[in-house]
Design a protein that fits this description.
This protein is α/β, with parallel strands linked by helices. Helices cover about 25% and strands about 15% of the residues. The strands form two sheets. An eight-stranded mixed beta sheet has the order 1-4-3-2-5-8-7-9, sandwiched between helices. The chain binds uridine-5'-diphosphate (UDP) and manganese (II) ion (MN).
């Protein structure tokens, strides 16, 4: 295969791998570093033996990484992808938001769509045989190590409103096999002339892996399910809780009242104080 871009550059680990499997997340600014701290603590509490890898870009100051190092994360300094100027311009925040507006929920001001594509650097982590990527705005609520045995590419459907959601995957959680060959092929596909990926890495990954394998919805339970589809909610079965759209740490949070129990839970994991027994939490009340 011809390679027009280097596939071995752009990731610098702080130390050696400690396992053949890893949970991987991405942080490109202080807000998501805070998100990753709650996530890393939640993963530790599952008793997993897998590494926790944090891909971090230059947008995160060193002091924001300290809590992650204290939680035993393997920090991997990560460059933005080597993409063309035209690609970067098409995917700048203002252009993504005007060309493909978000109508179902709000993206926080600190969210930069271009940064999402750094997720693809997971495929460069060839120290690992299998990785589970998890967005930094998520919590792991029980041991999910069995999903390391799932095939590439596994992801859960983007369910938060209706049955039509089942057609699309949500790229906040996925199972993948690092490979420089796959990474190179992705870079070539990603930056084809005029390529526009309206939901960034999510649209791209669905296109790159059209025959994606399904994870159960409980492996990526989206916060809007709490009020849109309460019958689907079952605390005891949730592996990953994902705060898509508004983030639990936002000060001006338009859905704060509706999502109060979920926001409180996230703060417990951030601080490590008063983390409840998950299976004992009350499920949302159903319409009568
Ligand atoms: N991300 C980041 N900085 C950004 C945007 C995204 O670090 O400015 C990372 C982070 O891991 C985040 C993921 O990319 O969880 C996907 O973005 P987000 O979770 O905001 O998208 P949503 O789940 O709301 O669609
Ligand atoms: Mn997310």
């Amino acid at each position: 295969m011809t390679q027009s871009v280097p596939v071995t550059e752009g990731v610098k680990p702080s130390g050696p791998a400690g396992s053949s499997t890893a949970f991987v997340t991405l942080v490109t600014n202080a807000d998501y570093a805070m998100g990753a701290t709650a996530l890393a603590r939640s993963i530790r509490l599952t008793g997993t033996g897998a590494d926790i890898v944090v891909l971090h870009t230059g947008g995160v100051e060193a002091d924001r990484l300290v809590p992650l190092a204290e939680l035993g994360c393997r920090l991997v300094a990560t460059d933005l992808l080597p993409l063309s100027d035209a690609f970067n311009e098409r995917h700048a925040r203002k252009n993504v938001h005007s060309t493909a507006p978000f109508t179902k929920g709000r993206k926080p001001d600190f969210h930069s769509p271009l940064d999402n594509f750094c997720k693809l650097r997971l495929w460069q982590l060839t120290d690992y045989g299998r990785c589970i990527f998890i967005d930094a705005d998520a919590l792991v609520l029980k041991n999910i190590d069995r999903y390391f045995d799932y095939p590439e590419f596994s992801a859960a459907p983007n369910v938060y409103e209706s049955l039509a959601d089942l057609h699309r995957l949500n790229s906040g959680v996925f199972v993948a096999t690092p490979s420089l060959q796959t990474f190179g092929a992705m870079l070539e596909r990603l930056d084809m002339p005029d390529a526009f990926w309206p939901r960034t890495d999510q649209t791209f990954l669905q296109n790159f892996f059209p025959e994606w394998h399904g994870l159960p919805v409980t492996m990526n339970m989206l916060q809007y399910v709490w009020f849109n589809m309460p019958a689907l909610w079952d605390w005891a079965s949730i592996g990953v809780l994902h705060y898509q759209y508004e983030k639990p740490w936002e000060k001006d949070h338009p859905k704060e009242e509706k999502l109060r129990p979920l926001i409180d839970l996230w703060h417990a994991f951030l601080t490590g104080e008063n983390i409840p027994e998950i299976a004992n939490l009350p499920n949302p009340s159903l319409p009568t």
